[in-house]
Amino acid sequence: MTTNVDAILAQYDGAQRDSLIPILQQVQAAEGYLSQDAIVRIGEKLNLPTSKIYGVATFYNQFRFQPQGKNHFMVCRGTACHVKGSGKLLEKLSQATGVEPGKTSRDGLFSIEVVACMGACALAPAISISDHFYPKVTPSKIDQLLVEMRSEPEKN
Amino acid sequence: MIQIEVDNITIEAKEGETILNALQRNGINVPTLCHMEDLLPSGACRICVVEVEGMRGLVPSCSYPVSAGMKIKSRSPRVINARKTVTQLLLANHPDDCLYCNRSANCELQDLSVELGVRQRLYKGERTKSRLDVSSPSIVRDPDKCILCGRCIRACEEIQTVSAIDFIRRGSKAAVGTAFDTGLNVSSCINCGQCVVVCPTGALTERSNVEDVLAALSDPNKVVVVQHAPAISVTIAEEFGVKAGSDYDGKLVAALRRMGFDRVFDTSFSADLTIMEEGSELVDRIKNSGVLPMITSCSPGWIKFVETFFPELLPNVSSCKSPQQMLGALIKTFYAEHQGLDPDNIVSVSIMPCTAKKFEAKRAEFSYQNRQDVDYVLTTRELAQLMRMTGVNMDQLPPDSADNPFGERSSAGKIFGASGGVMEAALRSAHYLLTGDELSELKIPALRGSKDRKEVFLEVGGTKIGVAVVSGLGNARSLMEEIKAGRDDIHFIEVMACPNGCVGGGGQPIGVDREAVKERMKTLYTIDRDDSLRLSHKNEQVLRLYKEYLGEPLGEKSHALLHTHYRTREVLR
Predict the structure, then answer these.
(1) Is B318 a residue of the active site?
(2) Claim to verify: residue A118 and residue A89 sit in the same structural domain
(3) Crossing angle, helix A2-10 and helix A36-46, to 10 degrees?
(4) What is the predicted pLDDT for the residue at B96?
(5) In terms of domains, do B326 and B202 share one?
(6) What range defines the domain where residue A113 resides?
(7) What is the ipTM of this complex?
(8) Whether B342 and B487 share a structural domain
(9) Among partner residues B163, B169, B181, which is closest to A52 by beta-carbon distance?
């Protein structure tokens, strides 16, 4: 875990605060989220207080502070999906899983991320679950998917 | 100097200064919210907008520089309307609970809406419903009342270099919060309260102990003992509209008695005691090659700062408790024994210009036989509230003097309230301890005043001693970095967490009124100039205490009651 962060920070020798966002992005790509430990290390590297890093990271939707769930939902909130009812979809998903956007359920089964556009406007409203795309999703489709995921036996 | 035209009048302005500065110097009032004197402009709130000819939009005067020939309108209908709209937008999601707000009648947002004639809620924004953060023993945060001006963040970051808080999230969900949005108590907050004094609204307030103290005062079975810090007597009157720098020492004591406190003591007494212990500790460290420089330990915000950010320097910090805790410890031991009181029946209250003292009083280190040395701490503001609640009017009371044995003080103890005062008091006594002679001139001008850093090098009995005084933790941080880097010409450092020391403390009247702080400081030094007893080691009651109870400075009893230890704090820095 921490070796990821160390390896990334090693690429940023002598870096200043303007490198913060690229570092955050790389760390999240490597670890799936920004852990407290990672933020502390980044702060030490760039000489920035953790409150400031947390402030920057929470400004953007892309950063998360909990590991992704086994089923990571990305809900598109781009214009086309919005018109096709992605707002309702997100609400439904959030309510059915008990997970707020950006968070992960306690059992680690679900996590939700909101993205601006997945480039699949013709298939709106679109979501992806752990990098697998689902076109023209309806609330009842969500229900169905959740039932399947919940009944799925413990794999690997 | 350049000339600019404001509302058809020509005024002089300095090249490079902001429009706001030029206007204010020329007696033109411009409302501000996010603006903080001496800090870089932030231009966040837009309440200070003015019209500049040739510019399309309105210009924030706090962050826009003047230029020659600039034509400004500071009170055109467009300007006033914009300011009014800004205020109305700030009010759009503000809880309408002014009647129940700690800051009612002392609120900049309220003032603005009065000044601008806001008489109805024009916009209705979605109200945020956050939980109060009551996790800290010193500071309560009510994010719903926050207008996101950012003054607390800048005080915390730019003045104190603590950065416990910052803006988090975005848009309508934006708020001021800690790293990972935790409670203040587990953040790197050092409880100094500088955020509270700069907050324009009721979003940041002290954790009040007024009710606890009232309850104790009305309990006939309790002996309620109070101590007041050196900076209180020169500040409290301001809360009642008296001009800054008025010393109400005697009237303060009389008022405390009138409110029902059974004994009234003066923390300046234990400041003298601190000098005896700390002075002896310094002499001991110098003579026996102990860890130098030694750093003072009176300011609890500073202590938490060093524990959090410079744990490697903890061996440098004096092991002396602060004057508040020394007196607290003595009240429940020596004094209780002496008076035949059951320490469990004593409620020990202290009046402090400080929110960090509330935290200090609750520290596990500051208890003796499972009793906290001090039970409740009231800030200057809470004391004023208690006086109003109980209807005690200081002005009509004849001055009274504090009770013995902890009522007598030297003026060396009194100047603890100003940055540099502890050092001056300590040098007076250290000189005596090292040489057996008194300093020929007790006043050490280089240690006085509001400078960021004060350094003095002097010869005491053949030893060259370097001392440094800093206030404001940003200044402390830069000095600590020098010490860490190997600077070794300094033997003794005084640090006060708040700018200018306790007179500018986080428990003092709301608003950073630099002139008022200066006046408070001046009064402390006037008291010292005119006092007949100006040396801590000449305080008869202190000497008696050693003779009858403590033995000698740094002795066994002293160690048990008057000294402490510190710990490294593992928090998100």
Answers:
(1) yes
(2) yes
(3) 20
(4) 85
(5) no
(6) 71-151
(7) 0.91
(8) yes
(9) B163
